Amino acid sequence: MYDAVVTPSLNHEPSGPSPTRSSKRAVLCGITYSDTKQNKLKGSINDVRNMRDLLITRFGYPREFIRVLTEEETDQRYKPTRQNIENSLRWLVNDCQSGDSLVFFYSGHGSREPHHNNDEACAICPVDFQKVGMILESDLNSLIVRPLKRGVTLHAIIDACFSGKILGLPHVYFSLDKKWIEDIPPSALDKRTSGGLAICISASLDNQEAFDTSTFNGKKNGVLTYLLSEVLRKLPSPTYGDLYDLIHESLDIINQGCLLNTRILWRIFDCKLSQVSFSH
Asked: Catalytic residue numbers?
């Protein structure tokens, strides 16, 4: 008989009285879909660990104000179900105040769903999406974009397929064209914040796939998550332009075979991740 292996929780429960709020809060969600027969992911929890460590060690986020949702968590509140993800996002923006710095990180499957006027909407897939449905861009916009008050900043990092417009933000930066475009939905829904700032960094456009690979360090990692965290560890306060340039420089080096000359990298990076979209 073998003892079951219990993975330590990534959610920190303070031993004494905990502070009631922090100006730095984060929700990190990584889903492997380990109970499904198809479409399992291997790098999502590594991505969450990577991002959690980055927020704590480089940006000073308190452990007790980083909420982690993965299938490895034994507390049912932290399983990445649709209800738990939505409740956690409400917690993230609840009573937000000027000076707050909020982070939503997601590593998992993304999808496209029929929406208004034969249009399609970006969506993320909770672990129970086959039973309760996906979380659409309009849902995410309502949950964590529109509540943002003046002086509040949200950074969303979405390492998923079809995620270019996942927060439904009104402006999108297309890196290959080096220009911003206005993105007004067919429904003419107001997608702006309540005075705050929302920035979304996505692994793909809304018609592209994203990938993970074990080539970087021998462990499965989302390509965007790994490169983004490496850049921010070396340069913790870049401008958005610097961040974009450095990520693309890394991709260019890989594509040219100068750093990691393997067939799988050429297959993964061949035009698939030549664009990272920044929205505000």
From this structure: 109, 161
